[in-house]
Design a protein that fits this description.
0% strand; 143 residues; Methane Monooxygenase Hydroxylase, Chain G, domain 1; mainly alpha
Length: 143
């Protein structure tokens, strides 16, 4: 009988994992209680009663704030090992940490200046055609 290669072992592991998950889902389907109620079938919105359709467009600021949080949170997490061992590297280790903090501060100032940290932004009022045409005529002097 031939021995499995390393890739063959990985394939067997993936197949067994998929079979295990499928069996777990099938057993769960038969063992779980089925008692649907109106409240259980409602869309869950953090304890609030849902109003309207769940298929709404979210403001892109939710995603921007979440991405900024993840970015700075991960970078701040990198400071923990530095804080533990920076004395072993002397002034060089301290300088690298301060440089890292300075770059983080520049990134935060950039996001603040750009306005991505402001939750409520002033509304941009669209210009009507008459205003746009008059600005164009003033700028280029054509009528």
């Amino acid at each position: 009988m031939e021995m499995l290669t390393d890739f063959g072992k990985i394939l067997v592991f993936i197949i067994l994992g998929a079979i295990f998950v499928a069996i777990a889902f099938i057993i769960n389907r038969f063992l779980r209680p089925v008692r649907p109620t109106t409240e259980k079938l409602m869309t869950y919105e953090c304890g609030e009663n849902p109003i309207g359709t769940p298929w709404i467009k979210f403001n892109v600021r939710f995603y921007v704030v979440a991405l900024i949080f993840l970015l700075f949170d991960v970078e701040i997490t990198l400071l923990i090992p530095w804080a533990v061992v920076y004395k072993e590297f002397g002034f060089y280790g301290f300088g690298v940490g301060i440089l890292f903090l300075f770059i983080l501060m520049l990134g935060m100032l950039y996001e603040w200046k750009k306005g991505d940290l402001d939750w409520v932004r002033p509304e941009v009022k669209p210009k009507d055609l008459k205003t746009v045409m008059s600005e164009f005529e003033n700028q280029y002097g054509t009528k």
